[in-house]
Amino acid sequence: MERITSIQQLELLKNSLQKAKESGRNVVRVCLGPGCRAQGADKVAAAFRDTVRQQGLPVKIEPLIKETGCHGFCKEGPLVTLVPSGLFYSRVKPEDVEEIVEKTIKKQEVISRLLYSENGTSYRTANEIPFYKRQMKLASRNVGDIDPLNIEDAIANDAYQAAAKAFSSMSPDQVIKEVEISGLRGRGGAGFPTGRKWRSASNAVKKRPGPVYVVCNGDEGDPGAFMDCAIMEGDPHSVIEGMIIAAYALDARQGFIYVREEYPFAIRNLTIAMDQARSVGLLGKNIMGSGFDFDIRINRGAGAYVCGESTALFLSIEGKPGEPRAKYIRSVERGLWDRPTVLNNVETWANIPVIIEKGGEWFSKIGVPGSTGTKAFSLVGKVKNVGLVEVPMGVPLSTIVEEIGGGIPGKGAFKAVQTGGPSGGCIPYKLKDVSVDYDSLTKIGSIMGSGGMIVMDDKDCVVDVARYFLRFLEEESCGKCLPCRLGLEAMLEFLDNFTQGKGSLEDIEELKSLAKAVQDGALCALGGSAPNPMLTTLEYFREEYEAHIVDKRCPAGVCKALITYHIDPEACTGCGLCAGICPQSCITGEEKSPHKIVQNACNRCGLCMDLCKFSAITVS
Amino acid sequence: MKEIDTKKLINFSINGTPAQAKEGWTVLDTARNMGIHIPTLCHHEAVEPSGACRLCVVEARDGAWSKVVVSCMYPPYEGVEILTDSERVKNVRRWVLEMLLAQCPASREIKALAAEYGVKSTRFRIKNPEEQCMLCGLCVRVCAEVVGVQAISLGSRGVLKHVSTPYMVPNRACIACGSCVTVCPTGAMQARLDKVRGDVSQRTGHGFAH
Ligand SMILES: Cc1cc2nc3c(=O)[nH]c(=O)nc-3n(C[C@H](O)[C@H](O)[C@H](O)COP(=O)(O)O)c2cc1C
Ligand code: SF4
Ligand code: SF4
Ligand code: FES
Ligand code: FES
């Protein structure tokens, strides 16, 4: 491809690429996002290539095989979509590929077996599926659509148009103003207004002339979260373009993207995207012939959760141990190398081009006042449709979990939803209609966080859940400050006791007081927000805590010290399956007559209950 | 280094008493100047503050806004009200001290400090009854920042954190100056010095540095 030396040239290129795209050529989009990859999507893509090559199809029919990022509906993967028909095939196996080429590509026949179906209805295209219906994709607009390794494909989908618009018709100040008007708030956790952050940085450089940096936070450490991963892998250009726009607004020359080492595909796709952008003149020296220079470097994080915290992240980029430091001076004033720095999250960056292209005003009308635009969530846990969703801010929680997510796999309602990752809060079913926006979530004790959503059902014990998140944070604590290093361990001691039926009701009050000390005393937000899951579960499920402490009972049947397994003699057929698998060999009984568990030998592994075909084993 | 205008004064209050700070002073500097006592552990004039122990917390109030901050690092600003003994402050201190009794039960200094604030026993698990160190990192900082030799470091992270020598062997970089012992608030370094510097009598060469 030729180097782009002017804004008009980018426009011409885009037009010609779009025309080629609209020519009606067959395209097969194979999702190679993290979920589908795990289910063997790479073999499906390879099978398509082989089959198409072997068959030597006529040019008019021969499809372009496109490997894309996550389509969102990971649970149904590997996913394949066909253009122009829009057909959406789910759970595609390499063995299905020949049939797809024979029937669908050559003869336009639909293979109904591969269509997604739900409650007896099957759906031909993605848009009709309930999972996609309530969604709105802004940050992930091109994820799953474009081939992230092909910049032409991105350009045909409007990549770098917003940067061109900013360069050609907006002053740096106007760019910041647009972001301010949009109401965009940081998607990485704290929800700080992005425009205000940029404005402060811009003022700080005016006061202290010298270098200024823009940084992308792609550390994404929350267990179960993969929104940022999906964007970096599926549409790296949206992040790069967002950073170019900020660089123009702040007159920055150097940017950094901090990505965790565990995301090799994100690192690869970003690297290739940046190389391609550089080689066509969209990044590096003299971008689009405008005379503006800006380049980006990737830093690999060693995978410590705390390195996602801003001050630790800066130290890590500087090559020092990633330990947070006090933030009484803000990083927009003194960040990387003590210079004004703008740090934003991956999803925040991906929103910037949309705002510049369509206007801050347009963006501000999406969502609700105070929380504008959309938010991406990764929906995991006890939910039918595990996957990546993006919805306008302000939709009710139940819409996400029940309509989009399809509710819990079994019968009944969900018990609670943990939002905001390990330092977020646990929202009970009775608050299922809460509007999912920054302020409403904060009001009920949770947080938006970066967008993890973990659904729980009645087999999840809230005391155990609180303990799980606390343990995660205890292990990730950098250990610098005492309230976090010792406080999380001390809180765990309380919770460990509770799960063993020890402790007293006064201990609950003491634990709350300790939690307050940790919130107030910890140096950074890792420690400061660590008590949230415990405090919210206590607030909304106090009776479950009391059941452990007073009645020595775990209602969800999770806490091993408080449960016993029994065999219901009525239901037991004496098949003996359980006796065969019990690692303690503590199930006895004659063939064809009810079996029994020898309680003092049982170690409560639960294997028997999982195995029994007659639901004869109960836990209490 | 910060450029400091020594003539400019910042007016605020500590426990309701008017206070004046010179530019560059922290709340702790100002309080000490006024003779108001705030307990500290990881702070020492000789090294940059790190804000690790959180014992020196105070509450900063500004209208309806309030936040618990560490006085050894917090720069006061015009009009802010500082409370050194509010409920929130006392709550942080009480828990930190109780947890410290479990972390370094062998430190007489910590026991005395805790008792001063009414904390006499701990309910938490004692991992090592011999432990004296609270991992404030002062010894490491003084060695690096003042002595300039980095003979000791903080290894590992989180609950596994510990003070040691690089590679866990007695360290020839140590010049046996004893600065770490002097700054250590718990008495732990006194017991460790020999591990760090090794047997001085076995050393060859000039002085301690080689
Ligand atoms: C312990 C800890 C971990 C964090 N991890 C991340 C992360 O993985 N990704 C992220 O974008 N922000 C993370 N943050 C938030 C960042 O500190 C920072 O607020 C954010 O990157 C700013 O960007 P935003 O305004 O666009 O959200 C973390 C914060 C804390 C305290
Ligand atoms: S709160 Fe935890 S993670 Fe943050 S500085 Fe303190 S010890 Fe480190
Ligand atoms: S030895 Fe003393 S100075 Fe060093 S970290 Fe431990 S308590 Fe602090
Ligand atoms: S990875 Fe394919 S749909 Fe998410
Ligand atoms: S003395 Fe201030 S944090 Fe330790």
Describe the 3D structure.
The complex is a heterodimer of chains A (620) and B (210). Chain A is an alpha/beta fold. Chain A has five domains: 25-83 and 87-124, Glutaredoxin (3-Layer(aba) Sandwich); 151-364, Rossmann fold (3-Layer(aba) Sandwich), CATH 3.40.50.11540; 368-460, Ubiquitin-like (UB roll); 463-549, Up-down Bundle (de novo design (two linked rop proteins)); 564-619, Alpha-Beta Plaits (2-Layer Sandwich), CATH 3.30.70.20. Chain A is 40% helix and 14% strand. The N and C termini of chain A lie far apart (68 Å). The model of chain A has no long low-confidence stretch (mean pLDDT 94). By secondary structure, chain B is an alpha+beta fold. Among the domains of chain B are: 9-85, Ubiquitin-like (UB roll) (Roll); 138-202, 2-Layer Sandwich (Alpha-Beta Plaits), CATH 3.30.70.20. Helices cover 28% and strands 16% of the residues of chain B. Chain B has six helices and seven strands. Chain B has helices spanning 27-34, 87-103, 108-116, 138-147, 179-183, 188-197; strands at 9-14, 17-22, 57-62, 65-70, 81-83, 153-155, 162-164. Chain B has a five-stranded mixed β-sheet, sandwiched between helices. In chain B, strands 6-7 form a two-stranded antiparallel ribbon. In chain B, strand 3 (57-62) and strand 4 (65-70) form a beta hairpin. In chain B, helix 2 runs antiparallel to helix 3 (108-116). The complex binds flavin mononucleotide, iron/sulfur cluster (2 copies) and FE2/S2 (inorganic) cluster (2 copies). Residues 31, 33-36, 70-74, 77, 79, 387-388 of chain A line the site of one FE2/S2 (inorganic) cluster. Flavin mononucleotide is lined by residues 186-190, 192, 217, 219-221, 305-306, 308-310, 343-345, 348, 450, 524-526 of chain A.
